[in-house]
Design brief:
Dehydroquinate synthase-like, alpha domain, two-stranded antiparallel ribbon, alpha/beta, 12% strand
């Protein structure tokens, strides 16, 4: 039996921010980062609130939000006593808000509270997922928090808030969308419903990501990428992910590479590994290879056999990453060989503990992860 639940109400399209004007007499704690606070985006969002609304801003969020940030946010909530939580920003702001929500409820700072999310990037899909990633900077470990308690009640998808995203972040977050969709598609928990969402997200990335990268004012491309991010989030929230994200979480905490970029470095190697076509003598895994071949066919790539389909797909991904100026290896990202070698065993061990790894289509060993990492170097 499969349980399929989409619990977040979406407001999308023209003037979707006007949803905020429907709230009255709330005390809103806004979770964001310093850039969003200073960019004018936050003032735009707040301008939709009625005069009866009271707001307080917590803008201490940093990339890969550490536990200390969560603690600070909870202290702010204790002081302010919000009746509504609003996250505005990219994946880090939304992850931080989810952490504050969860641990705030656990500690009794607040009970059930409306949780609204407004994404300003097209990458994580976090506005529709029950996932959050919290970093322990001291231990150099990222912990996935997975519970329906942090699933947003509402998400507002307004393309105007993504128009100023720089090309580098557009590329990195877009590749994150692609990785979400592909991993959901081959996950052991994939269903017909998640497949449909993943397929559409993959098609949109290949059609619109480069357009958004080359011309940040391309409204259609931005809007389609925002939709792709959301659809990929809906897909992996049901099907989960795989070893690509398991490694990315572990490596990101130790090598400090942007999450989407790290996923892009790993993705071709993970696809080859999962399909049994890596250069390590493993036999072809026909079932998983066929799943990747279905993606290749969807994209109109050469896919006369599973081997050809996997090769075409990985070549298309690497080619797109090069056009987006995304490094395709750890070395080209600037990671020193000695540092990489010092960290790879710990990264592999942490990746096996990651909950995303549980739904990878192939059973993974520590040696396999080390091999993937070395091939990606």
């Amino acid at each position: 039996m499969e349980k399929i639940r989409f619990g977040t109400t979406l407001y999308a399209g023209e003037n979707s921010l006007s949803r905020l004007s429907e709230f009255t007499e709330e005390r809103v704690l806004i979770i964001t980062d310093a850039f969003i606070e200073k960019s004018g985006i936050l003032e735009t969002v707040k301008s939709y609130f009625s005069a009866s609304m009271n707001t307080m801003v917590f803008s201490e969020v940093v990339p890969d939000p550490p536990i200390d940030t969560i603690v600070s946010g909870i202290e702010k909530a204790k002081e302010y006593k919000p009746t509504m939580l609003l996250a505005v920003g990219g994946g880090s702001a939304i992850d931080a808000a989810k952490g504050i929500l969860y641990f705030g409820m656990e500690s009794g700072v607040f009970q059930t509270i409306p949780f609204i999310v407004i994404p300003t990037t097209s990458g994580t899909g976090s506005e529709v997922t029950n996932f959050s990633i919290i970093t322990d900077a001291e231990k150099e470990v990222k912990y996935p928090l997975v519970t329906d308690d942090i699933l947003p009640d509402e998400a507002i998808l307004d393309v105007s808030l993504t128009m100023g995203l720089p090309p580098v972040q557009t590329a990195d977050t877009g590749i994150d969308v692609l990785t979400h969709a592909i991993e959901a598609y081959v996950s052991t928990k994939a269903t017909d419903i998640t497949d449909a969402l993943a397929e559409k997200a993959i098609s949109y990335v290949f059609e619109y990501l480069e357009r958004a990268y080359k011309d940040g004012s391309d409204t259609e491309a931005r809007e389609k990428m925002l939709s792709a991010s959301c659809m990929a989030g809906l897909a992996f929230n049901q099907a989960s992910l795989g070893i690509n994200h398991g490694i990315a979480h572990a490596a990101g905490a130790r090598l400090h590479i942007a999450h989407g970029r790290l996923n892009g470095i790993l993705l071709p190697h993970v696809i080859r590994y999962n399909s049994g076509m890596a250069s390590n003598g493993l036999p072809t895994d026909k079932k998983t290879a066929m799943r990747y071949t279905e993606i290749a066919k969807l994209l109109g790539l050469s896919a006369g056999s599973p081997r050809m389909g996997v090769r075409s797909l990985t070549n298309a991904i690497v080619s797109m990453e090069k056009r987006l100026n995304i490094p395709t290896s750890f070395s080209s990202e600037g990671i020193e060989k000695d540092h990489f070698n010092d960290q790879k065993q710990a990264i592999a061990q942490d990746a096996l503990k990651d909950r995303c790894t549980d739904t990878n289509p192939i059973k993974v060993t520590k040696e396999d992860v080390v091999r993937i990492l070395e091939q990606a170097y």
